[in-house]
């Protein structure tokens, strides 16, 4: 390969111009001019798994460029951009296939080398474009759970691994939310949902488990704190043309009186601050049916004032299309959950002893709940392991 010619070809990348800003690609270009950079280049490639082809392939497939963005919006691609894509993929194929021995200087000294894998970039790239509704692009192709900070969205690299198959009890409640989520994934109008009920009953875990189950089908989760609710209209607008489907998750939602975030969320649920989007739903959890933290001062005033306050709090809950109730489990459901966790953790206790210890643990630890059941089994498993 004529490396100087190849260097000039790389510098013509337009759609994929961001790849030229990558540290490894930049080092490779420098190495063509000065071979003393070669070992530093190898070191950086080794940091990424020692395979240059894999590294370049992932960058190309996840690159967020104008071609991808237009395809995601179902816009017509003009011929000049289509032709540029094909040309640039051929250049990037050369980069993907580049062997160590083609770059380092020939001498009696033994040089480090990197690995290569055979890929068909053009074929795989067009296939990836067809799969945008499931695999996404850019940061949404790499991660499926996100948070919000001052700069906007950021990925949560190690999300909760809760799975649906590990969850016991509340199957009816979960099925309602699963059906609603599947409607979202199928492009139908899905409802915003409020999961209301006692602490520890699995409201948040249900939402996270659903995302873990269906993220390969194009589902993404964005976790929003209550104080960030005012940012939701801009976030929803940003996601409007994205082919993926998004759950905006607000955990443990509650408000104080005269809380501006209360009005902001009400407006969002009404659709007055942003048009209804078919690819976004809001799932919220709350221990309070009508969200408000009541104080003695809230109870003061005449009967009309109190009635107005009650009606106002009820109106927000009513704006969720679905309200799913998770109540504290009774004795039978609690023991069903305990038994499932005991089986999962391979806890060796006979059923009678398991029941006595589980009930005693619940009395000492905030009563029966799915969370208490799991904590009990984990506690007993640790004790059993120590004794063994």
Automatic annotation (TrEMBL):
It holds the Pfam family DUF815. The keyword ATP-binding applies. It comes from the Bacteria. Gene3D superfamilies: P-loop containing nucleotide triphosphate hydrolases. Residues 189-330 form the AAA+ ATPase domain. GO terms for molecular function: ATP binding. SMART domains: AAA. InterPro entries: AAA+_ATPase, DUF815, P-loop_NTPase. Keywords: ATP-binding, Nucleotide-binding. The keyword ATP-binding applies. PANTHER family: SLR0930 PROTEIN. This is ATP-binding protein. It comes from Floccifex porci.
